[in-house]
Amino acid sequence: LNMDKPGDKLYAEMTQAPSLQVGKADAPLLLMVMDPQCPFCKNAWRKLEKDYVSKDKLLVRLIPVAIMGESSMRLAEHLLERDGLEKWNTFAKSDFNPAV
């Protein structure tokens, strides 16, 4: 990486961000920045998980962020705790916000 290039610097910083990782370790990597309350993020994950991750075609690092408000921050923190991927999968398959 050339740290003088903004894209390379951003990539390096994002790979160090707290995240959930799912998929085959040697598959191509996708960094997915997502707000847990974003319906577009949830839909994108459903598609990625069904068509790529479950078929060992992609390794995804889910990087939760809080863009949609204070409750997003609590959900993002909650997802980074133990069993976060299981929580995210359950949440992403639903259309409701769980109590945190």
Please explain how this structure is put together.
The chain has 100 residues and is α+β, with helices and mostly antiparallel strands. Helix content is 44%, strand content 16%. It has helices at residues 6-15, 39-53, 70-79, 84-92; strands at 20-23, 29-34, 59-64. A 3-stranded mixed β-sheet has the order 1-3-2.
Radius of gyration: 14 Å
Give me the side-by-side strand order of the main sheet: 1-3-2
**Alpha plus pi helix count:** 4
Share in helix = 40-55%
| DSSP E strands, number | 3
Poorly predicted residue ranges: none
Label the overall shape. globular
Global structural class: alpha+beta
- What's the average pLDDT? 87
Report the span from N to C terminus.
Answer: 38 Å
Task: Spell out the blueprint of helices and strands.
Layout: H1 6-15, E1 20-23, E2 29-34, H2 39-53, E3 59-64, H3 70-79, H4 84-92
Parallel strand pairs: 2-3
Antiparallel strand pairs: 1-3
Q: What descriptive keywords fit this protein?
A:
alpha+beta; three-stranded mixed beta sheet; single chain; 100 residues; 3 strands
Condensed summary:
The protein has 100 residues and is α+β, with helices and mostly antiparallel strands.
